[in-house]
Amino acid sequence: MFSKILVIAPHTDDGELGCGGTIARFLEEGKDVYYAAFSVAEKSVPEVFPKNELEIEVKRAMKVLGVPENNLLIYRYEVRTFSYYRQDILEDLVRLKKELEPTLIFIPSLNDLHQDHKTIAEEGCRVFKMATILGYEEPWNNISFKTSSFVPLEERHIKKKIDALKEYKTQRYRSYLNEDFIRSLAKTRGTQINKEYAEAFEVIRWII
Known about the structure:
Strand order of the largest sheet: 3-2-1-4-5-7-6
CATH topology: Rossmann fold
Order of helices and strands: EHEHEHEHEEHHE
Strand content: 15-25%
Distance between the termini: 8 Å
CATH architecture: 3-Layer(aba) Sandwich
CATH class: Alpha Beta
Helix content: 25-40%
Number of domains: 1
């Protein structure tokens, strides 16, 4: 149904956290998946690492998932300042729409509390309103999240998601990168649809 898919991540690792298993499954099915990261979050890199380490890590993570090198698009907006550059971000998204013409777009939930995530979600809805849009969950940022769409996953898809996230050595201290948490959330979403694993999404726009 969807041949060209665009995952929009405010920061490196957001897309893998929100839909890494789904990316692995779609690639396995031969779909054309693109990943656009809007910040390499240099200010979030611990001092013991080079400032560009997250850029290196996202490239490694995409390789684990199987995203072609040319399908990874990196932008360099400063973390926590997206709202100041809303028009620039909008124009970047418009260019992506024209160049890629994706039929399925993944963005953060519209209920995501992080200021950068919210900007990306709002501008993503504005640009891609004529396509199907799903919002991915990041529970640490969501007070509310409507699980209205599910992608069933197998063990191999979850394993790829976990292995991809292990490439983010700079972010290991974050509780949501814990393997047990990632697996348990996928188990919970799977249980909701009587499958072993799944990822859940909010339906923002659905075009059949």
